[in-house]
Structure formats: structure tokens, C-alpha cells
Amino acid sequence: MAKGFLKDDILIMSSDGLTNMVSQDEIFKLAKKDIEQAPKELVEIANKNGGYDNITVIIIKNI
């Protein structure tokens, strides 16, 4: 069984400003769809949903 950060794995790091405003399913869906635009889109969605806290999103894909 392989372990660790494997090819094509996606690592998402974010503040609770994102996770309190956007569902986990939506975060993963957007990250898988377009990894380059996802952070910006996720911050916009979090702000539209109330965005009362700072919002930080970093997405890394192992290529």
C-alpha cells in the first residue's frame, strides 16, 4: 500500500474563514475542477456566504 503525498494528490490548506462558509464537498469539487482558479473562487463564495472572518486558501497538486 502506497503512502504519502502521491502523484495527482491535492492538498488544500485554508483558514476557518473558508471552512465556516463553504462546505467541504464544494471546496473539493472546485479544487478538482480548476486548481488555479479555485482559491479565488472559494474566497469569493465564502465572502458571498457571509465572510465575517479572514479567508486564506492554498491548494497544492503533486504532479
Structural write-up:
It is a single chain. With 63 residues, the protein is of the alpha+beta class. The chain has one domain (10-61). Helices cover 40% and strands 16% of the residues. It contains 3 helices and 2 strands. The protein has helices at 16-19, 24-33, 38-48; strands at 10-14, 57-61. The chain is elongated. The mean pLDDT is 94.
Average predicted confidence as pLDDT: 94
Total number of distinct structural domains: 1
Rg: 12 Å
Separation of termini? Answer: 20 Å
> Total strand count, please?
2
Spans with pLDDT under 50 lasting ≥5 residues?
A: none
The residue fraction in helices comes out at: 25-40%
The helix/strand class is alpha+beta
Annotation field: number of helices: 3
> How much strand content do the residues show?
15-25%
Give the topology string: H per helix, E per strand.
EHHHE
Main sheet record: 2 strands, antiparallel
Strand order of the largest sheet: 1-2
| Global morphology | elongated
Write the layout of secondary structure elements.
Blueprint: E1 10-14, H1 16-19, H2 24-33, H3 38-48, E2 57-61
Antiparallel strand pairs: 1-2
Helix pairs in contact: 2-3
Features:
3 helices; two-stranded antiparallel sheet; 63 residues; alpha+beta
Describe the structure in brief.
The chain is of the alpha+beta class. It has helices spanning 16-19, 24-33, 38-48, and strands spanning 10-14, 57-61. It contains three helices and two strands; from the N terminus they run βαααβ.
